[in-house]
Amino acid sequence: MAPFPPRLLAGYRNFMAGRYAAESARYRSLAREGQSPETMVIACCDSRAAPETIFDAGPGELFVLRNVANLVPPYAPDDRHHGTSAALEFAVQSLKVKNIVVMGHGRCGGIHAALNPSAEPLSPGDFIGQWMGLVAPAAEVVASNTLMTPAERQTALERISIRYQIQNLRTFPCVRILEEKGRLALHGAWFDISEGELWVMDAETGDFVRPSLGETL
Amino acid sequence: MAPFPPRLLAGYRNFMAGRYAAESARYRSLAREGQSPETMVIACCDSRAAPETIFDAGPGELFVLRNVANLVPPYAPDDRHHGTSAALEFAVQSLKVKNIVVMGHGRCGGIHAALNPSAEPLSPGDFIGQWMGLVAPAAEVVASNTLMTPAERQTALERISIRYQIQNLRTFPCVRILEEKGRLALHGAWFDISEGELWVMDAETGDFVRPSLGETL
Amino acid sequence: MAPFPPRLLAGYRNFMAGRYAAESARYRSLAREGQSPETMVIACCDSRAAPETIFDAGPGELFVLRNVANLVPPYAPDDRHHGTSAALEFAVQSLKVKNIVVMGHGRCGGIHAALNPSAEPLSPGDFIGQWMGLVAPAAEVVASNTLMTPAERQTALERISIRYQIQNLRTFPCVRILEEKGRLALHGAWFDISEGELWVMDAETGDFVRPSLGETL
Amino acid sequence: MAPFPPRLLAGYRNFMAGRYAAESARYRSLAREGQSPETMVIACCDSRAAPETIFDAGPGELFVLRNVANLVPPYAPDDRHHGTSAALEFAVQSLKVKNIVVMGHGRCGGIHAALNPSAEPLSPGDFIGQWMGLVAPAAEVVASNTLMTPAERQTALERISIRYQIQNLRTFPCVRILEEKGRLALHGAWFDISEGELWVMDAETGDFVRPSLGETL
């Protein structure tokens, strides 16, 4: 049998000697009293866009759902296994998070697949094709604009999709009600990977803008 | 409108001044040449168990799916939106990862819900109830053993579930075939949160054991 | 009669006491020997996007054409007064510049007018309408994508237009021939005004990217 | 492909570290609220006569049209692309500038071409020849006076041309009407390049005189 990946064990040793050593009291407290993160992040599986890294978040801070292209299937109460809906329900109803951030990123493979559907699916089940079908209508609109470069179309759909997912969040009654009561805020963010730039969505206009970092001190 | 959470912006500033400043060349290279992570981690949304933190992983290293209780619904090719299957297909067929690690953890809220089903669902859709239904048969078996303490039952189901998810991974033809060819390895891991202990699954026996860290140097 | 604007005279006095005092030898030399700028910039009239300011350029460095939305009408040898073509001919054939930079910018009023044609022209001649008609086909394509926000459509057309103008530059035989001989290079740039960000066009892909400033030393 | 001119990138870096750093609040405000310059300057493309430099103007102050020899083709409402008329219409009708300054300068290449028409045009389209045809009648008159030195003829036509362009401005109904109402003032200026001298036109007499700078404090 294959041994547990040595790179992961080496990394874990670093964690124990570094972060855990420094924060063991916090880990123990979080274990004893349970987690109470204020923020849920819905992010992509991409190896270059880990929320804890980008937001320099410590243990207990972020409740993180990650799927391909950070999508939120709309509310559909039936007898299926809805992983995203379950995470959302748990975060909102049980943990009572105050913020939900949908964080997309540049060069997203899922968005790329939506813009460039291949005749040949990755596997017979075509799970990526089905999953990215959630943004297919927007992908068609964006793909039709051949005056934009492929990279510009990619960024455009990445951002349109974030706005879509935020709309989909509002199809969940609990989200909509708590947002109306001012107890839950929905945010969009987009991380460019290459330059490390973070762009946040203006809730009024839907535009993505560079946040003023000076004001955060 | 609610401003973007200041704590996240402050964390992002730390990231830019710290990790990004130190690894900007790597981020740019990853943006230019694409990601090629060797390992996919299927982990829980829990705010205390971020894979990048526990494995001290840098950008580009881990392709991370996170859902409640790190579950893998079994292969079901139909016309539904299967988020977990899509991530798996992308990791295996497109990124060609060499390892998949299912990482559970102590004090998991999803596992706790499976062991203690409430009469009252968290929301009318009962998404957590539906989602954790994926381990309901095992949960019933464990819950029936009243000789174990609640904490023991919790840990037991957390570990049983990891073994279940690894079996579910093998229902995907692409996973099974590549594992048989020796090009993909499946691993289990369990993180205890409180003491920072990592336990890895022995592939032969299914037992969880403390890895020998000295060997990783 | 109105006196010459006092603000301009005050600014001129600053110039004499500052830049001119420091560079009088250079001004005299440039007067005596003529200008020989290496770069022509085709920029917008906008008061927030002066090329000399953005590129911190001294006397003699930039030959600057400015019109609304930095457009280049395509080659049309006839008996009309073509201001843009005249400037281009002078820069390329007489001054023999080595670079032509088409520099657009964010929040461009001309591009905004192209995307939002009003039923009521600004004046009976509708000169803005006629002039921006040079990008009307692209404006229609971009305007039709209502999934993008108004600001995103604006940026998209600003960048598409820069690529168009560079293509129009190549309709001039002298430009095309010199570019083929490697004696003239065409560049695109986009300045965002708000954050002071400069984006330059990748000649291969047409994408606008942040230049690496460290490499310019 | 040719890289973006390094000199421009170095200049841009200076801008970011200098002027932008000092005026970022102003840039952001101008981006948010739009430009509202009080003055339009019609200047020459010449690399030695940038209006922002000569008037030490900051962002948002000057709306600047630049073409060869700072010409204003007279009002001609037809279906052509009139770049100068478009800029004028935008400045007057949309931005509602209060001043228009036509600024010529010494040693102007366009004026020199008008005075010394070559048998051989710069390119087959002879765009400079066509463009400078706008001052051909005056050029013929000046050229015929062989008692003046070539340099005196050059300066004479530079100044005559400024007066012509101001007359041409008045062929635009909107300019004439607003000037009559006292809401728009037209000015002439001439910059000598060599000594840095600015001369402004006396609106009564048409003479160019050195302004009294003491009065501007």
Automatic annotation (TrEMBL), chains A, B, C, D:
Cofactor, how bound (note): Binds 1 zinc ion per subunit.
Provide the catalytic activity annotation: hydrogencarbonate + H(+) = CO2 + H2O
Q: What is its EC number?
A: 4.2.1.1
Enzyme's top EC category: lyase
Query: Quick check: keyword Metal-binding in the entry?
Result: yes
Keywords in alphabetical order: Lyase, Metal-binding, Zinc
**GO function terms (MF aspect):** carbonate dehydratase activity; zinc ion binding
Question: Which Pfam families does the entry link to?
Answer: Pro_CA (PF00484)
- Asked if the keyword Nucleus belongs to this entry, the reply reads no
GO BP: carbon utilization
CC cofactor: Zn(2+)
Query: Binding positions for Zn(2+)?
Result: C44, D46, H105, C108
What's this protein's family per the entry?
Answer: Belongs to the beta-class carbonic anhydrase family.
Biological role stated in the UniProt entry? Reversible hydration of carbon dioxide.
What's this protein's name? Carbonic anhydrase
